[in-house]
Design the sequence.
């Protein structure tokens, strides 16, 4: 590409159009080569081509892709020598401010463009509203939406509605979030699982379990199929209120609807079951994971191991620990200390030595574990056993 550009510069018979340079600047942005983008922009006149707002915008966008926000500001400040900023210019700058967390600067740019007679478009509003929602300034976004419709006649895009609903859910404004959902229905916008997942999750958080279930059932009426995230939200909600029967029914419903369970689905249930002392059920779910095509991860192992240790299920915990270390996963030190201390208190020396050997194989044994084991044995005057532990430490 750069060889072709060099030929274009030397061949005076050809006058390249500005769109060529806009495209090259875009490619440099994708490759995060901001210095080359700046160099090419400066050299455009050498190609017998005049720079307009289009190439300026392409450069700004290239710098945005490279996350060079300071350079964007410098380019913008020099821009009016050559071209007048348009809505696209401000959209790129506002997006950069939102991405870098400078929401006040984004609002100033929005006010500036209007004061200069540059009319904002739907993308301008959408970009600014998205930034405000991500910054949890949803009430400001809501006011901006009102101006967008009333003063400019723009209807927010579906993705803007979704972002606002998600933001409103985060700050607990359920009434407004539900109102926006109804607006989407009234405007014939297709609702998707992300909208419902946010709403259902928030209803569970504030203790409105029945409303959450109603929303889940409503999805079918709008032709919106729950996805894995939606099912996980439902399972997590029922687990939090200790309604495991309903959580299991949702799990079965996933299979019936052909929705694949993921590791988060299982981890949610395993973790909650362990907290309630339902270790046998948790272990059954853990063993069911591979049969369902879901591989347990380090969180799965740690949740089950922690639960078994906390419940005094030392033999089962040791078996899980052995498998865990074999897979290359390391337990939390606190859980290991609980297991070792429990075995010492129960006087299960044979199992204790097995646990220490397993931990040593995975290089997962720390000084604290040894101190617990040796001190407990020494306190019980079992000096020969303490000697064995010290021998193991040396080995």
Sequence:
């Amino acid at each position: 590409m750069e060889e072709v550009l060099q030929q274009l510069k030397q061949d005076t018979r050809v006058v390249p159009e500005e769109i060529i340079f806009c495209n090259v600047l875009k490619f440099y942005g994708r490759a995060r080569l901001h210095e080359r983008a700046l160099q090419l922009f400066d050299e455009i006149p050498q190609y017998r081509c005049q720079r307009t707002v289009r190439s300026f915008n392409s450069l700004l966008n290239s710098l945005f892709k490279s996350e060079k926000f300071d350079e964007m500001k410098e380019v913008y400040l020099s821009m009016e020598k050559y071209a007048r900023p348009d809505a696209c210019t401000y959209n790129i700058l506002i997006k950069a401010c939102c991405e870098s967390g400078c929401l006040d600067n984004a609002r100033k740019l929005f006010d500036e463009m209007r004061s200069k007679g540059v009319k904002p478009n739907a993308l301008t509003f959408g970009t600014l509203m998205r930034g405000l929602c991500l910054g949890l300034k949803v009430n400001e976004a809501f006011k901006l939406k009102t101006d967008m419709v009333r003063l400019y006649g723009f209807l927010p895009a579906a993705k803007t509605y979704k972002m606002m609903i998600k933001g409103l859910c985060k700050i607990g404004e359920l009434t407004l979030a539900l109102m926006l959902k109804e607006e989407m229905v009234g405007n014939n916008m297709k609702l998707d699982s992300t909208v419902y997942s946010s709403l259902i999750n928030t209803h569970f958080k504030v203790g409105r379990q029945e409303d959450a279930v109603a929303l889940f059932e409503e999805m079918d009426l709008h032709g919106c199929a729950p996805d894995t995230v939606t099912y996980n939200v439902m399972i997590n909600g029922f687990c939090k209120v200790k309604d495991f029967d309903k959580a299991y029914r949702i799990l079965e419903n996933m299979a019936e609807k052909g929705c694949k369970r993921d590791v988060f689905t299982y981890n949610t249930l395993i973790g909650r079951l362990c907290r309630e002392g339902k270790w046998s059920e948790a272990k059954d779910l853990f063993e069911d994971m591979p049969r369902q095509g879901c591989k347990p991860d380090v969180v799965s192992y740690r949740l089950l191991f922690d639960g078994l240790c906390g419940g005094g299920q030392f033999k089962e915990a040791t078996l899980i620990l052995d498998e865990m270390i074999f897979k290359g996963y390391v337990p939390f030190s606190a859980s290991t200390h609980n297991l070792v201390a429990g075995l010492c208190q129960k006087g299960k020396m044979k199992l204790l030595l097995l646990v220490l050997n397993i931990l040593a194989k995975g290089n997962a044994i720390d000084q604290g574990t040894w101190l617990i084991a040796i001190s407990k044995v020494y306190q019980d005057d079992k000096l020969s056993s303490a000697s064995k532990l010290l021998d193991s430490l040396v080995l």
